[in-house]
Amino acid sequence: MKQTVEIYRGGVKAMAIWDDVIPQEELKRFAAGGMGTSLVGFGEKAVLLIVDMSYGFVDSSFPLGDSSVGWTTVHHIQKLQAVAREKKVPILYSTSEWKNNSVERGLWKRTPEVTQALKNPKAYRIVTELAPREDEPVVTKMAPSAFHGTDLLRMLIQYNADTLILTGMVTSGCVYATGVDAFSFGFRVIIPAEGVADRSQIGHKVALFNFHMKYGDVLPMAEVLRYMSSK
Amino acid sequence: MKQTVEIYRGGVKAMAIWDDVIPQEELKRFAAGGMGTSLVGFGEKAVLLIVDMSYGFVDSSFPLGDSSVGWTTVHHIQKLQAVAREKKVPILYSTSEWKNNSVERGLWKRTPEVTQALKNPKAYRIVTELAPREDEPVVTKMAPSAFHGTDLLRMLIQYNADTLILTGMVTSGCVYATGVDAFSFGFRVIIPAEGVADRSQIGHKVALFNFHMKYGDVLPMAEVLRYMSSK
Amino acid sequence: MKQTVEIYRGGVKAMAIWDDVIPQEELKRFAAGGMGTSLVGFGEKAVLLIVDMSYGFVDSSFPLGDSSVGWTTVHHIQKLQAVAREKKVPILYSTSEWKNNSVERGLWKRTPEVTQALKNPKAYRIVTELAPREDEPVVTKMAPSAFHGTDLLRMLIQYNADTLILTGMVTSGCVYATGVDAFSFGFRVIIPAEGVADRSQIGHKVALFNFHMKYGDVLPMAEVLRYMSSK
Amino acid sequence: MKQTVEIYRGGVKAMAIWDDVIPQEELKRFAAGGMGTSLVGFGEKAVLLIVDMSYGFVDSSFPLGDSSVGWTTVHHIQKLQAVAREKKVPILYSTSEWKNNSVERGLWKRTPEVTQALKNPKAYRIVTELAPREDEPVVTKMAPSAFHGTDLLRMLIQYNADTLILTGMVTSGCVYATGVDAFSFGFRVIIPAEGVADRSQIGHKVALFNFHMKYGDVLPMAEVLRYMSSK
Prior knowledge:
The structure is a homotetramer. Chain A contains nine helices and seven strands, in the order H-E-H-H-E-H-H-E-H-E-H-E-E-H-E-H. By secondary structure, chain A is of the alpha/beta class. Chain A has a single domain (about 40-230), classed as Rossmann fold, CATH 3.40.50. In chain A, strands 1, 2, 3, 4, 5, 6 and 7 form a seven-stranded parallel sheet that branches. In chain A, helix 3 (about 65-85) runs parallel beside helix 9 (about 220-230) and helix 7 (about 170-185) packs parallel to helix 8 (about 200-215). Chain A starts with about 25 loop residues before the first helix and ends with a helix.
């Protein structure tokens, strides 16, 4: 599935991935309100976060997975991961895990069949292509945001990070929730458009549009790679 | 602006407000994944939260406001507020305030013109039609979620709430972020569709779709009024 | 090590476990300020939390453990655990775990020798006498408070708890930090005096004094057992 | 009230302010466990936090205030504040405010008389000697920790701080709770001993002892001034 990833930047005329779903009239209203017309920009110290790139989301063999967008995204993130490792940019990962007690699982809306499928530990295993190294922390979360109920925030502060490069699945779910939290905690959030994916194309595009209008920057992967390479 | 508010509930065939923006194919994929096919349901003790119904969002005289949807929503929420008061359901409100120091304002993407407009205290004043009574707490927030940097969570716990009736503006921004946090903290979240609004129709619909698929229930206002009246 | 556990309650004259360390003059100043002169009291729905009753704290074979107070406390908590199970009061546990990366371990002040000793998984194993049942959740934490970086809060909310019965080790460290968080989140916190212990007797007593003056109730275990049995 | 402020540092023999209240035997046990035998140390970017130096705590005309230690502490903090301003070290303040609704006030253990006294706005006014400048943010809190329900954390992150210089009142209450949170969020916490005070001398000393053993560094004010002056 091809995605156009040139990003809309307010004044600057450019094709953005959401241009085919957000009506012109609405784009104009946002521009008039001054939203999305500037960039937050990269700070001094970035950390790369890879959200939920486990088989359960990447692969269609799981009920919540979507191979049609998942595997392409894996390959895009791989490039970023390689540069981050080379440039000593810290990498953090999130995933989830099966919990026996319903009170531990939270109030997710799921059918018994999906709950059953989520008992398979492979659903939570980060795909081999992106496997964390021993020195790269993985947080285990039960809520959409990778900050909720985890030590992610403390580690970002210990890394003295001011910028979060945010990737993973799914855009409109855990990625978006993580991005809103990161923004709320005062981090500059940069989402490389090809580094996130969603089983819903419209959910994907509208989430990125929303995020770019209000909270952080959605940029082409090439631009994020360029920034990281220059470190 | 008329909105169709019959809600999609998985198995039950019904027109939902997002049916004109979410492609059939995607709706089917969600149904196949068991998402949105059941309701979280009301619990034992509900609290009504009214997010950011201030002139700055309700009224088009402010750059981020939208009268075309704001005032209708005010009137819908008024009915809920009246029943809540009658039935002794606690009501909480959120708004924001101007801060002189940029570090206090956070990293919102805004033009200097919008920032200037936000110095007007009226932008943060809750509209007269929904004015909080003295005994109804108002939290002041600087982040999208009404939980972030406020005492909302403690008050919900002191009220012994298990259910959050979530209303306000804007759907895809502060309402959505508040809803994700409420879900993450273990509350049943119910959004009456006519009780929320957004300057972007597609943002509004996709946010509600997303929320109903994963985290909580988007219901017609009539159903929420019925529940609250029966208390 | 015998502890006197009658609790000081402001006006009511009674021997409290801290009476031998807090000077009379200071007790009077607190009473004059109206602190500790009333009880928060039990609410409607209690949860029992057992903090860090692992070999690393209970047993002197570990550098941070103290058998002289740990094992007595195990036996006291056992009684409470038994009644809680009988009365269907939910039980939650916290412990910690070894992390390979220093950034995951946080900024605890420890010598290399202590850090080395903490690699032993037995340090984090909850003592057999208090072993959690399969349906009793255990949260894994890296910070003093059992709320920090865990799902404890969400589970308390899902249990609809308004009261936290707080036990474990060590009083002045993880128990106290957990208690302050629970109070801050709006829970009634009850500490049965014999259900908590510390390697420092003065730390233990002053922490309980402080807590009882400001945030929650320190009660004799017998009173907490009586309350729980009456459910 | 004179306080000895040379700080105990594990191996290094020195008089510490807590040496007259912590029994030798306990000091030895802590040293054997490797606690308090090293310093966390200053990082790269410090922020000065002044907790609750309002008339309600500083001055004995309020039921929770204590002039006998409050005013001396004001003068010590003034020196630090002056150097911080000169060296462009950001300064943040916390205080509280009166809330009409009991649900907004939380579960603090207070007599009706104390609650009555806390209606006076002067109780929350930061003393003139330490009055914040317009560009120095003040957070308003209802819980012990200055992080709880405030934007303090976001601002520290936006300042890119890794070190929190922690001062204010009262040591065993709001200062200690704030310090534990700062530690838990991954900040290096430095408490200048003369920059904190408590109505209870034993509470003060044991809190500092505890903090220095486990979470951060309690240093003589002179050392903190020297560090800040060298910036």
